[in-house]
TrEMBL record:
Pfam families: Aldose_epim. This is Galactose mutarotase-like enzyme. The lineage of its organism: Bacteria, Pseudomonadati, Pseudomonadota, Betaproteobacteria, Burkholderiales. InterPro entries: Aldose_1/G6P_1-epimerase (IPR008183), Gal_mutarotase_sf_dom (IPR011013), GH-type_carb-bd (IPR014718). It comes from Paraburkholderia silvatlantica.
Length: 304
């Protein structure tokens, strides 16, 4: 499918906010516009034949996130019995179709993925994974991930978001990211995770040392929100990770692709890459239980 599938895109609006979704393409939030300006960006030239690979929107990372590997091979994991299975980087959710249900008032959407023969080959568990988006008001977006173990065995998982925030690359030097108290870590080429080093309270986004870095939150939940301040766009984006009833978010990852990429990713994660092996954020969900991770994104006008 190379044509733009407008007929398959769901659009939700509230006041000056517009959300666009492709549930069939990994439950993907494509874009969020506030007052006609992109906050979460989707490229005009998106390759719809491989939507999971498009640099934009918010890919859902489940059941594992990041790179996991066995004997140097990325995309493999070993269970407690020593069985090695194939599971793609960032998991399979972003490649699969979700069922979708729009809220009655039209201000929210819930998307659901359940296990299938295809998922059980690399992840032999019964589950229901849900992603809910809701516009609390015209400038505030609530996002919830929920995992339910519908099988008889404990289920390992660590999910996350991959928000692509719109930011012209020429504005990185004047754009700052405020973070709660954190320890900075990264993944080595062999898959191991670096030892923690003290994180800073603020970074400029032209700082190449934070590309592909994990800001491990200590303590959780964080006392202050994540705040992306972009004077060139006249706005600040706040990510509140201390929401009622939410699991503790483990880390916030910062990443962009290239020096001329007009986006910057700020990604709340429930664990670190390879947690299935290193245990850093790995969660075990008991049979019949549900766990929920919630955050709130707010957009405010600077000086307004």
């Amino acid at each position: 499918m190379n044509a733009h599938p407008e007929q398959d895109i769901l659009t939700l609006t509230r006041g000056v906010s517009t959300l666009r979704f492709a549930p069939w393409a990994g439950g993907r939030l494509l874009s969020w516009h506030v007052g006609g300006q992109p906050v979460i960006v989707w490229p005009d030239n998106a390759n719809w034949s491989e939507p999971a690979r498009v640099r934009g929107g918010n890919p859902l990372l489940f059941p594992f996130l990041g790179r996991h590997r066995v004997d140097g091979q990325i995309g493999r994991w070993r269970d407690a019995q020593g069985v090695v299975r194939d599971l793609p980087m960032h998991g399979f959710a972003r490649d699969l179709p979700f069922a979708a249900q729009v809220d009655r008032d039209g201000h929210g959407l819930q998307m659901t993925l359940v296990d299938s023969e295809a998922t059980r080959a690399g992840y032999p568990f019964s589950f229901r994974f849900q992603a809910a988006y809701r516009l609390a008001d015209a400038h505030t977006l609530d996002v919830t991930l929920a995992a339910t173990n519908s099988g008889p065995d404990p289920l390992p998982w660590y999910a996350g978001h991959h928000f692509y925030f719109a930011l012209p690359h020429t504005q990185r030097a004047q754009t700052t990211l405020d973070l709660p108290a954190s320890q900075r870590r990264y993944q080595f080429a062999d898959g191991s995770i670096s030892v923690p080093e003290p994180g800073q309270a603020q970074y400029r986004l032209d700082d190449a040392s934070i590309i592909d870095r994990f800001h491990v939150l200590e303590p959780t939940p964080p006392a202050t929100p994540v705040r992306l301040v972009a004077p060139g766009l006249g706005r600040a984006v706040t990510i509140d990770l201390n929401r009622p009833g939410s699991l503790p978010w483990y880390a916030v990852t910062t990443w962009t692709e290239a020096a001329d990429s007009d986006f910057y990713c700020v990604e709340p994660w429930l664990g670190l890459p390879d947690a299935i092996h290193n245990g850093l954020g790995l969660r075990w969900l008991a049979p019949g239980q549900t766990e929920t991770a919630t955050l709130r994104i707010g957009v405010e006008t600077l000086g307004g």
